[in-house]
């Protein structure tokens, strides 16, 4: 068998001059570093700005609407908790309150009618402020106080006027007038003298009243339109009837 042996001197010079390639498993090759961009470094140092269009819009939460519940929920809750008997008892209580109020109103009306009486003979009464009145019917209801609502019928004429022109008449048109005692201005055709007379009347009462000029429309008179005028310094004659006296609404 032939054997070959080679000495280092017999290898080509090109193979001897190259260094062997050594690879290490513990170290990974370092990737090349990209060239730095000055403009990108400058942008990184600046704070991030978001345009108004890109910002999310925050919508306010809608407020919960508070609703006022009726008294029916009381009956339903009582029924669920204590049975149908409790619910029916509550409904009966409400019905009793309504009926009681109606009965009270009817009793007041019947009492007013029972105590109201006609006057056989009219007697003149002169008040310190110069008002004269004649009682035609004595009322049996409540007497108005300051702040009360008075519903009344009114008929007014100019005293001493031969034409006897009527400037207000709620008896004929069927539309009673309303007055809150102590309030201004007055309803059309009403004056301070009428309010003074109402203070001593009761619901259901009726009077014939003579109001002097200083408690009527004074030296200025009044113009109600449609050709109806009160001349300056005129005394007035009214027929006043109180239909109802009640507490004025808030």
Structure in a nutshell:
The chain has 250 residues and is an alpha+beta fold.
Strand content: 15-25%
**How would you sum up the major sheet?**
8 strands, antiparallel
Estimated radius of gyration: 52 Å
> Poorly predicted ranges (pLDDT <50, ≥5 residues)?
1-11, 21-28, 64-71
Q: What is the count of DSSP helices, taking H or I runs of 4+ residues?
A: 6
Compute the number of strand runs.
Answer: 10
Instruction: Give the overall shape, derived from the CA principal axes.
Output: extended
Round the mean pLDDT to the nearest integer and report it: 73
Walk me through the structure.
The longest helix is centred in the middle third of the chain and has 32 residues, at 84-115. By secondary structure, this protein is α+β, with helices and mostly antiparallel strands. It has helices at 13-17, 38-45, 72-82, 84-115, 170-173, 192-198, and strands at 117-118, 124-126, 132-138, 148-158, 166-169, 177-180, 206-211, 222-225, 228-230, 236-247. Mean pLDDT is 73; it is low at 1-11, 21-28 and 64-71. The protein has six helices and ten strands; from the N terminus they run ααααβββββαβαββββ. A hairpin with a 2-residue loop joins strand 8 and strand 9. Strands 1, 2, 3, 4, 5, 6, 7 and 10 form an eight-stranded antiparallel β-sheet that branches. It has a two-stranded antiparallel sheet with strand order 8-9. The N and C termini lie far apart (136 Å).
């Amino acid at each position: 068998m032939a054997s070959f042996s080679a000495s280092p001197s017999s290898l080509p010079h090109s193979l001897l001059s190259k260094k062997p390639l050594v690879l290490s498993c513990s170290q990974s090759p370092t990737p090349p570093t990209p060239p730095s961009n000055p403009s990108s470094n400058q942008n990184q140092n600046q704070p991030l700005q978001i345009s108004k269009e890109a910002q999310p819009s925050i919508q306010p939460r809608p407020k919960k609407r508070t609703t006022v519940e009726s008294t029916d929920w009381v009956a339903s809750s009582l029924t669920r908790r204590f049975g149908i008997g409790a619910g029916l008892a509550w409904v009966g209580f409400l019905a009793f309150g309504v009926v009681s109020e109606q009965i009270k109103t009817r009793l007041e009306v019947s009492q007013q009618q029972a105590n109201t009486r006609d006057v056989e003979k009219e007697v003149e009464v002169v008040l310190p402020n110069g008002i004269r009145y004649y009682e035609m019917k004595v009322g049996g209801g409540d007497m108005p106080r300051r702040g009360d609502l008075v519903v009344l019928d009114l008929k007014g004429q100019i005293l001493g006027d031969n034409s006897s022109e009527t400037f207000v008449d709620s008896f004929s048109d069927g539309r009673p007038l309303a007055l809150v005692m102590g309030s201004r201005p007055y309803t059309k055709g009403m004056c301070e003298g009428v309010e003074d007379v109402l203070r001593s009347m009761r619901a259901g009462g009726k009077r014939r009243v003579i109001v002097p000029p200083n408690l009527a429309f004074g030296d200025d008179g009044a113009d109600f339109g449609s050709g109806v005028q009160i001349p300056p310094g005129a005394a007035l004659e009214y027929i006043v009837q109180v239909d109802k006296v009640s507490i004025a609404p808030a």
